[in-house]
Known about the structure:
It is built from 16 helices and 2 strands. The chain is mainly alpha-helical. Strands 1-2 form a two-stranded antiparallel ribbon.
Amino acid sequence: MHSPTELQKIIEEAILKLAHPTKPADLYEPIKYIMSLGGKRIRPVIVLMATELFTDELLKAIDVALAIETFHNFTLVHDDIMDNAPLRRGKQTVHEKWGVNNAILSGDVMMVESNKHLSKVDITVLKPVLDTFNQTAQGVCEGQQLDMEFETRDNVSIAEYLEMIRLKTAVLLGGAMKLGAIVGGADEQNANLLYQFGENLGVAFQLQDDILDVYGDPEKFGKQVGGDIISNKKTFLHLTAKAMVKHEELAVLLGNHQDTETKVKAVTQLYNHYQVKELANLEMEKYLAQAYQALEEIAVPDDRKIYFRHLVKQIMEREN
């Protein structure tokens, strides 16, 4: 079996070998650009990890891994347009570099490229692979739509928020793992268990992200602490507090203070008073336990799961 670091190198080499047409340049250059920006390649890596749970024939899943990474980067191109983001991984975003219209078209072609990669899998698993990928891709789009709608809604429930992060973030982790399992020859039960592992881990990860945005060390977390509070983002912490605070405290939670530092401090004090962090941690631990339970039930030798346990630690043990 390969370590995640070894799998990451395999993915990087496969991406470097991708051959795109040279014309029209403004259509294909953005694709090469966004795919070359790097990152941890966690999604294609877990495709390969999932395949290696069930077979040593790792390379039979490389095209599926490339499909997942291409799809993920397609969503980044379009998300950056919707967010009007100037930077991605410290570099100019595609729409800033080539214009919005070119970025939209290049993203569309990336979705086509994802399907072209998937079409190379063995015919015996082609239908379940396509079905799983299409369900995953549709879920991600639904999650993005809900996230946008929540920005203008005042009545978002905690259940709705959890469903949104499940769709926007978690289904891609679960889908990537299930795809790898299918290509690796897993039966339906084991493939579904691996999906459940990935999906629950994805929800736990996002809940932890919500917590770290308020309570994390910015140097270790890599983001501005309190950014969600400043933008009034409807996170699990925000929605939990909103359901608990007194009427006169709503102005503090929802208000737009000129001094952002004051706002972050005041809202954090509310969170502390109502023990919102502890409630968020309990919710996160619930999903993490469900992930571990699904992993435990997968019918493969325990020593083949070792890198998945390392993956959980890597994803969830970010310092705060």
